[in-house]
Amino acid sequence: MKSCLPALAFTLVLVAGCTTTPPPEPPQPERLSQQVARSTLERAQQAYDEGDYAKAITTLKSGGVSVFEAAEPATRLDAMKLEAFSYCVANQVPECRAQFRKLMDAFPNFDLTVAERKHPVWGPAFEAAKRMKR
């Protein structure tokens, strides 16, 4: 019996080593796309908050449509709205209106909040884009 103990212990170690948990599943493409879109949006929002509107615009555009195409609708809407606001405060009003038109094409029920409509630049740009849409 003494001679079997080392062999039994070795077998138990081998069996215990074989019962490891499987590695985690790789991220699904949808989740990865959403993560990339959120990360891009966060970088653009940070640039906007720091007053670097040109960087906010280029960050949103650097991802291209593909980054936000696969994103959840709320993320896509937030990115499009931030781009419009960035154009407006960068005094690129025609681009701001065009971005609002794209936003309304993608989200027909989109509207600014009451407070946002009162903004001296993007409020009128949004209303002009809305009139052009009709």
What does this structure look like?
It is a single chain. The chain has one domain (29-133): Tetratricopeptide repeat domain (Serine Threonine Protein Phosphatase 5, Tetratricopeptide repeat), CATH 1.25.40. By secondary structure, it is mainly alpha-helical. 74% of the residues lie in helices and 0% in strands. It is globular and about 55 Å long. The chain contains eight helices and no strands. Helix 2 packs parallel to helix 5 (73-89) and helix 3 packs antiparallel against helix 5 (73-89). Residues 1-16 form the signal peptide. This is Lipoprotein. Keywords: Signal. InterPro entries: TssQ-like.
Distance between the termini: 92 Å
The H/E string reads HHHHHHHH
User: Structurally, how many domains make up the residues?
Assistant: 1
Specify the structural class.
mainly alpha
In the predicted model, the low-confidence regions spanning at least 5 consecutive residues are none
CATH fold title = Serine Threonine Protein Phosphatase 5, Tetratricopeptide repeat
Averaging pLDDT over every residue, what do you get? 82
Strand content: under 5%
CATH architecture verdict: Alpha Horseshoe
**Into which percent range does the helicity of residues fall?**
over 70%
How many helices? 8
For CATH, the homologous superfamily is named as Tetratricopeptide repeat domain
Query: Could you say which overall geometry the principal axes of the C-alpha atoms support?
Result: globular
**Name of the CATH class:** Mainly Alpha
Radius of gyration: 26 Å
Largest sheet: none
Extended strand count: 0
